[in-house]
Amino acid sequence: MRRTRPLLFVLLALLVAAVGVVVLRDPQSVAGTPVAGSSAAPATTTPPPATTTTTSVPSSTTTTTTTTTRAAAPLAGKIKPGEPRQGVATFYDSDGGGACSYDPGPDPLTAAMNEADYEGSAACGAHVLVQAGGKSITVRITNLCPAPCRPGQLDLSAEAFALLAPPVKGEIPVTWTLVSPETAKTIAIRYKTGSSQYWCGIQVLDHRNPVARLEVQAGGQWRQLKRAEYNYFLSENGAGCGGAIAVTDVHGERLVVDALPVRPDAVQATNVQFARAGE
To answer: Residue 228: its pLDDT value, please?
Structure first.
C-alpha cells in the first residue's frame, strides 16, 4: 500500500493539469469574452463616446444682430427709420425754438412737424433727411406745425427751404426719412423751471436718435415718466427727482445717467450718446 500512494498522487496531479489546459483553451476566452472574475468590462456595457455638435458663428453675427434689432426700432411711433414718407414742405421764420421747448440756436436747419407725426412731442429732436428735386438736406425737428399742416407735411426753416427750392414756390413735394446723423455732442439733461424734490420736469437735449422713454430711479426701482406735449418728462409727485435717469431711444438702446442735482433751467452735460443706427 505504501508503494501505490505516490503513484496515485502522480496520477491525480496529471489529471488536474489536463483540466487546467482545457479551461485555458476555452474558445469563449479566446474570442475575447471575459470569464467570470475578470477585471475587464463587458463590451456591451461600455458607453459610446459623447457626441458634441459645434456650430461656427461668424465674427460679424453680433454686429448683424444688433443692426437688425436697431433697424427694427421696436419703440418707434409713427415715424420709423428706413420708411420714406411723402408730403409737402413749406417754410417759416424759425429760430430753433418752439413747441419742443428748445432754446433758440444758431443751427438754421430746423423744421416743425405736422401734428399727426409730432405725436405728443415724440418727434422732438429727431433728424430727418428731406429730399426734393434731386437735392437733400437734414433738419432737426424743433417745433409743432398745427393745422392746416397736413399729415406728412414739414414746415422748414426759411434757410432749409431755400436749399431745396426757390422760396417763391412756397410749397414743394418732398420725401423725408428719419436718420441717425453724425454728431460730436453728448446728451444733456435739463430740469424744468420750478422743479424741486417734490415736482420736476426732465428734458433730454442733443440726442442723436429720437427719445422713446425716460425713467427715474426711485426707492431702488425704475419708474417711467409720462411725456408732456412740450417735450418734458414729468414726475408730478417728485419720485426720482434728482436721482439716476435712464433714457431709451426708438431703437431700444438704454443709457443710464448718474444722479444730477435738481437745478432748474440749467443744461447739465453727460458723457453718453446713442449709437448711430446701423452700427
So the answer is: 98
Question: Average per-residue pLDDT in the chain?
Answer: 81
Cell of 187: 446728451
- Are 111 and 143 a contacting pair, CB within 8 Å? yes
Q: How confident is the model at residue 279 (pLDDT cuts 50, 70, 90)?
A: low
Across the beta sheet with 267-269, the strand order is 226-227, 233-235, 200-205, 188-191, 267-269
C-alpha R_g of the chain: 40
Say how far apart CA 30 and CA 26 lie, in whole Å: 7
Is residue 179 helix, strand or coil? strand
Separation of alpha carbons 170 and 121, rounded Å: 26
DSSP structure string for 92-145:
E---S-STT-PPP-S---EEEEEHHHHGGGTTTT-EEEEEETTEEEEEEEEEEE
Those residues with Cβ within 8 angstroms of residue 153's Cβ, 6 or more apart along the chain or in another chain:
87, 88, 89, 90, 114, 145
Local confidence band at 18 (pLDDT 50, 70, 90 cut-offs)? very low
Other C-beta atoms within 10 Å of 106: how many? 6
* DSSP per-residue string spanning 214-263: EEEEETTEEEEPEEPTTS-EEETT-TTTTS-EEEEETT--EEEE------
What does the alpha-carbon distance between residue 174 and residue 154 come to, in Å, rounded to a whole number? 9
Query: pLDDT at residue 53 above 70?
Result: no
Are 125 and 208 a contacting pair, CB within 8 Å?
A: no
Q: Which residues of 182-198 are buried (b: 16+ CB within 10 A; e: fewer)?
A: eeeebbbbbbbeebeee
Instruction: Please provide residue 67's backbone torsions phi and psi, each rounded to the nearest 5 degrees.
Output: -60, -45
Neighbours of 161 (CB within 10 A): 28
Mean pLDDT (whole number) for 173-178: 98
Contact 87/132 with Cβ under 8 angstroms?
A: no
Mapping DSSP to helix (H, G, I), strand (E, B) and coil, where does residue 71 land?
helix
